[in-house]
Amino acid sequence: MTTIVYCHPYEKSYNHGVLQAITDRFTAEGREYDVINLYGEGFNPVLDSANLALYSKGETLDEQVKRYQQALKTTDHIILIFPIWWGMMPAMLKGFIDKVFLKGTVYDTTPEGALMPCLDIEKTTLITTSEEDSEIIGPFMEGYFTPLVLNTVGMNGVKWFNCDHISSGSAAHRNEFLASVLDYLAK
Ligand SMILES: Cc1cc2nc3c(=O)[nH]c(=O)nc-3n(C[C@H](O)[C@H](O)[C@H](O)COP(=O)(O)O)c2cc1C
Q1: 147: which of 109, 115, 137, 164 lies 20 to 30 Å off by Cα?
Q2: With a threshold of 0.70, does the pTM exceed it?
Q3: From the CB of 140, is ligand 1 less than 6 Å away?
Q4: Domains of the chain
């Protein structure tokens, strides 16, 4: 089972094109997948006072959070699709992490207080787009987000694809990027 977390507000975006190409391919191949469309589902990314009061107990008042946690628990491949905004993920996806990654379901703590994973996801595919060179985004994606967030909760086997020069680059560059992503996902 593959779970796709899609985070882009605009249906005519390149990111949406990537989502469409992947879901078309999975549907054609009869592969089982689920899409969490954060903007499309009207997810509220704000970890507010009432939810923060429950945070230390690993509880939430948000029914969408419960559904998303269930999806993470039952998936063996997670795909995150999002544009790079200010060198990182959009606030919507950050809010998904803040609200959904809860103690007891997504992570836990050892008696010494260190974080440990509750998830056991063997394959994690990150698909992003940026204007800047991938090398500039790399330290965040590979030096921070992957080891200190994803691996911490048990999202393993991380492979990152970034389509840089998204607007200034050619259509051939974007098509080549999409082909390499689809090729990887076919394996
Ligand atoms: C709020 C905002 C912040 C952005 N910050 C960055 C950035 O830090 N680095 C970068 O390379 N591109 C940045 N961009 C450009 C986006 O990455 C680019 O518009 C997007 O990847 C294009 O894909 P799309 O057509 O699917 O939206 C930013 C765009 C927006 C709207």
Answers
A1: 164
A2: yes
A3: no
A4: 2-185 (3.40.50.360)
